[in-house]
Amino acid sequence: MADAFRLIETEADLDEGLAHLAAACPVWARAIPEIAPLPLRRRADGFEAIVDAIIGQQISVAAAASIRAKLEAAGMVSELALRTASEDDLRALGLSRPKARYLRGIAEAGLDWQGLRALPDDEVIAQLVALPGIGVWTAEIYLKFALGRADVFAAGDLALQEGARLLYGLEARPGPKALREMAEPWRPWRAVAARGLWAYYRIAKGREGVT
């Protein structure tokens, strides 16, 4: 796979991506000293990564961690366990009814998680969004942080859009189409650019009270 896809696996990979961004755009060159070093944020791929993604949808990080801990303590994070769990079992551990259904449905689907490693980004997204509860954004996050793909860019992410607005001094937040066009020169390191925009957004929010 290393020959087929550019991956982000180490801090050195992030540095290489930042060097590309700095060479591609003077705006990035000025911002990088402020945002570096960027977080690697790699995690193990597979079913449990999607479990975490579903748990974390539309709730706080603290709430997601609490529910994840309860599921783990109850032995409810494997595909086998979730296939055999009842909806009531999962709701008793803090999951909403839709999320309980999503997790059981994903477990029952029996996706070849290891096989995803060998597929191009668009095919991984297609397989993931066919599962219950998984949209394009969740699939793109899985590609970035579980599979380490270096050129995935979630243009629909509002924080990325706002980060781009702040970084480039734009009057309005770019929409997904405009942001994708902005990101073209950042290939093949758009996942590094995404980390950079998130970092810049957090810094600017703290400095200027951005909401």
UniProtKB/TrEMBL annotation:
InterPro entries cross-referenced by the UniProt entry: Alkylbase_DNA_Glycosylase/TA (IPR051912), DNA_glycosylase (IPR011257), HhH-GPD_domain (IPR003265)
GO annotation (BP), single: base-excision repair, AP site formation
Catalytic activity: Hydrolysis of alkylated DNA, releasing 3-methyladenine, 3-methylguanine, 7-methylguanine and 7-methyladenine
Enzyme class: hydrolase
Domain of life: Bacteria
Keywords: DNA damage, DNA repair
Any one GO molecular function term: DNA-3-methyladenine glycosylase activity
Name recorded for this polypeptide: DNA-3-methyladenine glycosylase II
